[in-house]
Amino acid sequence: MSTAPTPPPPPGESSRRELGAFLRSRRERLTPKDVGLPDAPGRRTPGLRRAEVAELAGVSVSWYTWLEQGRVRTSEQVLRAVSRVLRLDAAETAHVLSFVEESSPTVDVPTWVSRNLLTLVQAMTPHPAVVLDPHWDLLAWNAGYAALLTDPTRLHPKQRNLLWLVFRWPPARTLLPDWEHEARALLGQFRSRAARRPNDPRFAELIGELLSDGDAARWYERRETAGFQPSVRRFRHPAVGELRLRYVKLAAVDEPGHHFLAYLPDDRDSEHALRRLQTGG
């Protein structure tokens, strides 16, 4: 006799569980000394006790316990207090605050790219440019992007994803001299996005694919998070050599959830290299 599959928990409940697991992981990495408390001998609890966090944050032990268990909603004020106690950095604090549940409905993300945005992407050539959806799936790109990395039309549609290219496309580790730093930061940003939508099937599909990579699995298990930081990224291209490109990210206001990414040359040599990629010379 077959049984019906267990339905997934409500979205809010899943998010609260993810938040609780993240707070617990950060509590366990601290010591009493880190927060100005005496370190009593014979402690068996790794990191801080829940009671210690609750006292320093100004909430009851029961409430903080329920927070880690994903049983309660809470306010931005409480989460900021807990973030300060747990010594979270700016990216981790932003990650925690993203779990504050809002009453406004979620806006549907369009699956198409407007003519205006497509025109902008193409006009950026020879500078690489691409449009991403909330899962970082590639929706549109120009010839510059295809020349710098690979032509996404050669990939299976499920593989046309920024994080897939970084972790599962073999040439990426050679193309990016700072691959570990870049990959780890991108995975931290992606985890922050995915954690807010735990029942999203595309996020679940991508995470399953990424966790087949040993580095991604190890870093993901640590619940590392990161925020986007404009930076200069190095590429070592087999056809034109070294490039230094500034990574620019813009939100498409009239297409909620879509982001426009461009790679701009940081010096004249990189500018010339991008042009040579287009001409094949």
From TrEMBL:
Pfam families the UniProt entry points to: HTH_31 (PF13560), MLTR_LBD (PF17765)
Keyword set, alphabetical order: DNA-binding
CDD domains according to UniProt: HTH_XRE
Protein source organism: Streptomyces sparsogenes DSM 40356
Domain of life of the organism encoding this protein: Bacteria
Protein name, per record: Putative DNA-binding protein
An example Gene Ontology molecular-function term: DNA binding
Domain HTH cro/C1-type: 22-93
InterPro entries: Cro/C1-type_HTH, Lambda_DNA-bd_dom_sf, MLTR_LBD
Record-linked PANTHER family: BLL4672 PROTEIN, BLL4672 PROTEIN-RELATED
